[in-house]
């Protein structure tokens, strides 16, 4: 969560204060004002965390010895290093690499609209 501290320092406190003046409780202020303003940062953190855990190759390389428990990046590395036997089977290797990138690409495409939005989009009149 240290990645989000910058968002909380940059948000406009006048919006939170306006919600309190309008009679919103602390929970309502958080749920209706603070959380929507922090949504782009939370989505970004979610995507980066997913991508980091999806590509966790060194941990799998050190800790997993059973081929049935290999993660996708570890299996792909094993495939590229010659577990197919003799010969270079580039189409199979490239196909496996493409399949490994599909989940990360889907997550990014689903959440990409949150990258474009500003955290304070339309919250302050100036």
Structure description:
Helix 2 runs antiparallel to helix 3, helix 3 packs antiparallel against helix 6 and helix 5 runs antiparallel to helix 6. It is elongated and about 75 Å long. The protein contains seven helices and no strands. The longest helix has 29 residues. With 126 residues, the protein is mainly alpha-helical.
Summarize the structure.
By secondary structure, the chain is mainly α. The chain is built from 7 helices and no strands.
Write the layout of secondary structure elements.
Layout: H1 5-10, H2 13-21, H3 26-54, H4 57-63, H5 72-83, H6 90-111, H7 113-116
Helix pairs in contact: 2-3, 3-6, 5-6
Q: Give the overall average pLDDT.
A: 75
Q: Spans of 5+ residues with little confidence (pLDDT < 50)?
A: none
Task: Give the end-to-end Cα distance, rounded to a whole number of Å.
Answer: 30 Å
Overall 3D shape: elongated
Beta-strand segment tally: 0
Question: Radius of gyration over alpha carbons?
Answer: 22 Å
Share in helix: over 70%
Topology pattern, helix = H, strand = E: HHHHHHH
Major sheet characteristics: none
Strand content: under 5%
Number of helices: 7
Q: Structural class of the helix and strand makeup?
A: mainly alpha
